[in-house]
Amino acid sequence: MKVGDRHYRSIWRDAQTGAVEIIDQRWLPHEFNCVQLDALQDFATAIRDMWVRGAPLIGATAAYGVACQMARDPSDAALGDAFDTLHATRPTAINLRWALEDMRALLSRQPESKRAEAAFARADQIADEDVETNRLIGLHGLEIVREIAATKAPGEAVNILTHCNAGWLATVDWGTATSPMYHAHAAGIPIHVWVDETRPRNQGAQLTAWEMVGAGIPHHLIVDNAGGHLMQHGLVDLVITGTDRTTASGDVCNKIGTYLKALAAHDNGVPFYVALPSSTIDWQVHDGVAEIPIEERSGREVTHVFGRGEDGRTQFVQISPDGTPGGNPAFDVTPARLVTGLITERGVARPSRDGLLELFPERRNAG
Ligand code: MRU
Known about the structure:
The protein is an alpha/beta fold. It has twelve helices and 18 strands. It folds into two domains: 128 residues, translation initiation factor eif-2b, domain 1 (Four Helix Bundle (Hemerythrin (Met), subunit A), Up-down Bundle); 212 residues, Translation initiation factor eif-2b, domain 2 (Rossmann fold, 3-Layer(aba) Sandwich), CATH 3.40.50.10470. The site of 5-S-methyl-1-O-phosphono-5-thio-D-ribulose has 17 residues, from helix 2 and strand 11.
């Protein structure tokens, strides 16, 4: 997407040197910094400490991390080390394991002399495919927005609520949940987005709102607790979120608080859609609540908030007393029964095993 007058992806290779670069998302929206990643540990730190985040981007970053490691040392031991080091960074988003398994399967068949070249080619392909996948998700989601718009008075906006950041910064480009919004906006359908701030790390306030400003899409930032109230008053037509892992039975694991939005949507008859690339489906897992590992992050993310002071300096501010520990489960699971549909690159699936298999019949014997 455009930042200023330049088109950015969230991860890319320098056209001259081939070096891998990312947007360091920790400081947005106050500072826009690009950083070069080189050593395996750079990639592990960038994922673990959330310089990059969002399930599809974590996968693409891991693929480039393996490629950079292969350029330094293409041995089997180095490949195994890259897999283990990157896999240990974050536990919930399945795209990480998906990308690492893909890279390992490809590279273990290659002679060492060919591994670096093959790894970079595949990492580039994973990044390019993510862009196209998200574009297609947007086209399928656009039809849902269009249908709701048709029920409105001319010029009246479709109100879409989203949680966390499943925007272009969470993918290589387009985003998943935001792609239908970009497409609707470009098609001239009036939309308005309710952006959940998404405590504790405020990905909504810092990242999604910044993306909306950049795209010129009308929006309001709301506190995480406002969604139910807005739904009760008919001010939300549609919820679209992303997911970090979707089970073969259609449960979705996403940023903490997503489940509460789904409950409120269910109670108020508001359609609740989840947008995802198929790389986010874990075909081996069926019961999301019981089986998906939920990342527990530092309590400091809860007791402190990041922002820009009136003096213009960015800083972390403590909001709780000394001695109060923060509890910080980073994700929750929304059962399939609360999901209206799964917007994938192949179309909108019913949130069930049969629904997913209709779109992905090649997975019929998996898991
Ligand atoms: O902890 P994060 O910022 O990596 O969490 C991101 C989310 O929960 C997104 O909604 C999810 O990864 C889907 S991104 C298209």
